Amino acid sequence: MALERVFEYPRTLRRLRSDPLGKLLEGFCNWLLGHGFRRQTIRKHLFHVSHLNEHLREAKKGVPQGVSSRDIAGFFQAP
Q1: Is residue 57 part of a domain?
Q2: Could you tell me the pTM of the whole model?
Q3: Structural domain tally of the chain?
């Protein structure tokens, strides 16, 4: 698994794999590794995406049906 090549801690891995974007992050991480990104750079990218993921999870308060541009705009407006 690609995420295990970049992260060690089970708590971090659980957070990265959580809904709504968690199923996509393994593939994204694999893509970054395959394109020669350094481990530290991959970690930075995935931590940024994990913050977006947390925002989306809180904003949806349930099982999301998808992510819209409005959801992303809300992330950038959040304090």
Answers
A1: yes
A2: 0.78
A3: 1
Residue 58 within a domain: yes
Span 17-56, pLDDT tens digits: 998 889 899 999 999 999 999 999 999 999 999 999 998 8
Task: Find the domain containing 54 and state its range.
Answer: 2-73
**For residues 38 and 16, is the Cβ–Cβ distance under 8 A?**
no
Q: Could you write out the three-class secondary structure of the chain?
A: CHHHHHCCCHHHHHHHCCCCCHHHHHHHHHHHHHCCCCHHHHHHHHHHHHHHHHHHHHHHCCCCCCCCHHHHHHHHHCC
Determine if the peptide bond prior to 20 is cis (ω within 30°).
yes
Residue 72: count other Cβ atoms within 10 Å of its Cβ. Answer: 13
